[in-house]
Amino acid sequence: MRDADFFRRWMAAAAASVEREADRLTELDSPIGDADHGSNLLRGFVAVRAALSAEAAESPGAVLQLAGRTLISTVGGASGPLYGTLLRRTGKELGEAAQVSDEALREALHTGVGAVARLGGAAPGDKTMLDALVPGVAALSTSYRAGAEAAEQGARATVPLLARKGRASYLGERSIGHQDPGATSSALLLAALAETAEAPQSPAPVSPASPSKHPEDADNAENAEDAENAEDAGNTQHPEDTGQGLVGIVLVSHSAPVAEAVAALARGLAAGGPMAAVAAAGGTAEGGLGTSAERILAAAREVDRGAGVALLADLGSSVLTVKTLLAEGELPPGSRLLDAPFLEGAVAAVVTASAGATLPMVESSANEAYSYRKT
Ligand code: ADP
Ligand code: MG
Predict the structure, then answer these.
(1) Of residues 342 and 228, which shows the higher confidence score?
(2) Bridge partners, 282 (sequence order)
(3) pTM of the entire predicted model
(4) Where are the beta strands (DSSP E) in the chain?
(5) Closest Cα to atom 11 of ligand 1
(6) Which residues pair with 248 in a beta bridge?
(7) Closest Cα partner for 143 from 103, 184, 100?
(8) Which residue owns the Cα nearest ligand 1 atom 6?
(9) Best residue among 34, 36, 37 to mutate for probing ligand 1, ranked by most atoms within 8 Å of CB
(10) Average pLDDT rounded to a whole number, residues 289-313
(11) How many Å apart are CA 310 and CA 265, to the nearest integer?
(12) CA distance 243 to 220
């Protein structure tokens, strides 16, 4: 049976491995991506390590859910919501049991991998992380080492494949001949699991803090609560009182300037009369290109006037992060991702929402932007 400490050791081993291999992962992401996979995962797993030492997660399921949540909010690339979904879904399957069997873990991982496939719409052979995860998790029925080896083989077997999902798919034939970075990091994750299972039991490298024992920590917890309350109050006041009773719009782009400029264009074209609240959620928290779950959540809370929130996203991680937040129920009730072209859909959504349309009406007018041909 495996307890929470085993899962903490697994996450610590994964973090150490990502640290060692970050440069290689980023190099693999150069010819067929945007050269950030290593730095994305490094940021994510450093945050996972910090979260696991700061927060008490006392069951295997809780450890994986905390790790997954942390990856979703810190990674910034497509791999964030994908790995975040893998760990959260696996953690949810494990439930609250204090100890889980190897078989239960295998089954939970199988379900977690299924959730990744659904979220990203990919299947084995598409040159993604699934090419390592699917054979890797299947081979866990033999042993943890067999799982790690099958994942490694799966990663190497992505070299001759043509990418059909993710950023690499934009390259078409030119994606052939390169190993997929996400499949490579998935092999590292399963290698870290094998290493943890094979290691002689030793004290967990990452142990939970026990907040109640330290008066300063208790203070911090209180402050955090205060901050949360303050935020809630701020959300309901809406000092400028715009968009009262109207559907709110959130624009999620990889780029902060793009999100803001599209918001400005949509507001400009809808000008005159009442205006729906529009918020831009672009780029990462560090100001780079990518997606920030925190920015999306803050923007959705900012524009929520109780009539629903329509989200438009540009590409890859923007779409995957919004879908993940919706699946986790973290966005305000009545939030919806619109299937629409980003700029034209944003204009249609802001114009109709400002005219007092309901969320389904805003959605269908943004959808229709796809049928507007330009030649
Ligand atoms: P980004 O592509 O946003 O820069 P990363 O570089 O961190 O994100 O991650 C890229 C990896 O994510 C790819 O190598 C691939 O394995 C995986 N990936 C991307 N899109 C998908 C998808 N739709 N389904 C499964 N895996 C995907
Ligand atoms: Mg990348």
Answers:
(1) 342
(2) 253
(3) 0.80
(4) 2-3, 99-100, 248-253, 278-282, 309-313, 335-337
(5) 182
(6) 309
(7) 103
(8) 37
(9) 37
(10) 96
(11) 17
(12) 35
Quote the ligand 1 centre to 295 CA distance (angstroms). Answer: 20
Query: Quick one: DSSP state of residue 272?
Result: S
User: DSSP labels for 333-375?
Assistant: TTEEE--S-HHHHHHHHHHHHHTT--HHHHHHHHHHGGG----
The values of phi and psi at residue 364, to 5°, are -70, -30
Centre of ligand 1 from the C-alpha of residue 325, in Å: 17
Give per-residue pLDDT as tens, 312-327.
999 999 999 999 999 9
DSSP letter at 288?
Answer: S
- Dump pLDDT digits (tens) for 33-83: 999 999 999 999 999 999 999 998 999 999 999 999 999 999 989 999 999
Residue type, 332: P
Beta strands in 29-185 (DSSP E): 99-100
DSSP state of 279: E
Atom of ligand 1 nearest to the CA of 181: 14
Q: Which residue has the tokens 């803001």?
A: 260
- Residues that place a CB less than 5 A from ion ligand 2: 29, 33-34, 36-37, 77
pLDDT at residue 141, as a whole number: 96
Tokens of 152: 């490694």
| Distances, alpha carbon 54 to alpha carbons 57, 168, 203, in Å | 9, 36, 17
